[in-house]
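Thread: quick sanity check before group meeting

JM: Hey all, I'm pulling together slides for Thursday and realized we never actually wrote out the predicted structure for the chain we discussed last week. Dropping the sequence here so it's in one place. If anyone has concerns about the input, flag it before I start.
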Amino acid sequence: MTAAPAALQRRTPRTVPFGRRGRGAGMTGRRNAGTGLGSGTSNAARGAVTAEFAVALPAVLALLAMLLAGAAAGATQLRIEEGARAGARALARGEDPARVERTVRTLAGGTAAATVAAEGGWYSITVTDRVGGPLGSSIPWILTARATTRSEAPAAAATGGLTDGRGNR
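JM (edit): ok, ran it. Output follows.
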């Protein structure tokens, strides 16, 4: 059998199993062609990704800061509402305003301020506080909660000071 001339011989490419080529090998079989990263991306593409990240990062951080400030405002509002309710209950029982103020400060926080108003047989307490946190000090958010209750003291006086057996009026 005679060998075919070299020009007529057809060269078949060497086949490599799929998992043995490596990342970025492409059709040439060379690894990490051009970049040294193995991803096949050019320097211009990497620069575009960096620029997009640099533009998006401040926007994402500003959104996160506003979400945290909103959460701090919500937590502060819940605290001062609880303080106003507790202060109104204490006023209805006939406690002195200094004790009511301590109760409000315990529940609403040390920076909360309480104002008590009495009209007829009704007591009203208004609690105000600033939003805490890093953005709360730079943005002047002042939150307010108000609770109103009817005084129980005249009812106890009308019944002659009767108690429920445990010393409570």
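AS: nice. Confidence is low (pLDDT under 50) at residues 156-169. The first strand starts at residue 113 and ends at 119.
JM: adding both to the slides.
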